Amino acid sequence: MRWLVLADTVAIVHAAYIAFVVLGLALIVVGASAGAGWARNFTLRTIHLCAILVVCAEVITGIRCPLTMLENVLRIRAGAAAYQNDFIGYWVDRLIFYDFPPWVFALLYFGFASLVVLSWWRWPPRRPNWARMAKHASERPGA
To answer: Can you give the pTM of this predicted structure?
Structure first.
């Protein structure tokens, strides 16, 4: 039972990763268009860009997604066949896995990565001003 719970947890983390990449871009575009400062946060934008580039690197190198492999190992340890899930695992997997040829996924990943890079050009993130941040930190009481 604990192996299935762990496998479901990995599936949820996997779905959250995908949501961060996909919904993150939508929120960044909407936020930047509306002038929201968080949408140009350098750290957020860098993490977001790296998240999709990791997926593209997996495609280029032919590495299978580590989260998928971990989920399969945990399900097999639980005595279940890979991708035979309980309720949570079943629905999470249905949301993130589709039966398309690998080239379709590669095209989608690289196309999406291109959109993320384009968002850096259209709404560039603001680099942190470390000197200003250090000055403000030293002006705080107790610093």
So the answer is: 0.76
Q: What are phi and psi of 5, to 5 degrees?
A: -65, -45
76 Cβ neighbours under 8 A, 6+ residues apart? 82
pLDDT tens, position by position, 88-112: 555 566 666 667 778 888 898 899 9
What is the three-state SS of 44-85?
HHHHHHHHHHHHHHHHHHCCCCHHHHHHHHHHHHCCCCCCCC
Check if the beta carbon of residue 7 is closer than 8 Å to that of residue 89.
yes
On whether the CB atoms of residues 31 and 39 are closer than 8 A, the answer is: yes
Spans of the chain below 70 pLDDT = 81-98, 130-138, 142-143
Cα–Cα distance list, 70 to 66, 96, 97, 98, 110 (Å) = 6, 15, 15, 18, 24
